[in-house]
Amino acid sequence: MEGESIQKTSKKSSRKSNEITPTGHPLTFAADEVIVSKTDLAGKIKYVNDTFIKVSGYSEREVMGMPHNMVRHPDMPRAVFNLLWDRLGRGKHVFAYVINLCKNGDHYWVMAHICPSFDADGNAIGYHSSRRKPDMKIVNETIIPLYKKLLDIETNETSKRIGLEKSMATFDKIFRAEGVKYNEFILSL
């Protein structure tokens, strides 16, 4: 199935992103639509566009002030977000394939570009994310198998910390084998 969730082929994750149960049903949106959100430094939502509202199924009132991870699908490996937050914390932008969870439990894949937002004095004040419909061939052939591998490593360890460390080591090994850095790897797909 196009854009299936990883959970169908992975062991059940012990992590909970929220109380919504994934349905396994993929949702798509038009290639010319861009999902936009802005958060403060703590990741609390400060702005969403109409496409975010339409695709996620939440109202603007439901998301404002909430942690952005309210749309995080439990199939997202923690290693991806660890890398993402590390780059953002150093003032760098990041590209990532992300599976998000709709209010009704459906899911949607995005190619996210996330970057810090700065005030006039150059101080980080939050984050801006623009997400587009990804190439589903890349998602199905490369990203889902990669994320399944990382998620299996994370969930098969008794310690979440050790699982994350091993997952990150696997992620790093892939980049070294390709001779690229993370953003280069993602953009080369």
Structural overview:
- The chain is of the alpha+beta class.
- It has a domain at 17-134: Beta-Lactamase, CATH 3.30.450.20.
- The chain is 37% helix and 21% strand.
- The chain has helices spanning 50-56, 60-63, 78-89, 136-155, 160-178, 182-188; strands spanning 35-40, 45-48, 94-101, 107-118, 124-132.
- Residues 40-75 form the PAS domain.
- InterPro entries: PAS, PAS-like_dom_sf, PAS_fold_3.
- This is Chemotaxis protein.
- Residues 1-24 are annotated as: Disordered.
Give a quick rundown of the structure:
With 189 residues, the chain is of the alpha+beta class. The chain has helices at residues 50-56, 60-63, 78-89, 136-155, 160-178, 182-188; strands spanning 35-40, 45-48, 94-101, 107-118, 124-132.
State the main characteristics.
21% strand; Beta-Lactamase; alpha+beta; 37% helix; 5-stranded antiparallel β-sheet; 189 residues
The residue fraction in helices comes out at 25-40%
Strands side by side in the biggest sheet: 2-1-5-4-3
Helix and strand element order:
EEHHHEEEHHH
Sum up the overall morphology in one term. globular
CATH topology of the domain at 17-134: Beta-Lactamase
Biggest beta sheet summary: 5 strands, antiparallel
Could you tell me the strand content as a percent range?
Answer: 15-25%
Write down the Rg: 16 Å
Mean pLDDT over the full residue set = 91
Number of helices: 6
- The CATH H-level homologous superfamily of the domain at 17-134: PAS domain
- How many beta-strand segments? 5
State the distance separating the first and last CA atoms.
20 Å
CATH class of the domain at 17-134 reads Alpha Beta
Q: Note poorly predicted spans.
A: 8-17
The CATH architecture of the domain at 17-134 would be 2-Layer Sandwich
Class by SSE composition? alpha+beta
Region (Disordered): 1-24
Organism: OCS116 cluster bacterium
Pfam family, one: PAS_3
InterPro entries: PAS, PAS-like_dom_sf, PAS_fold_3
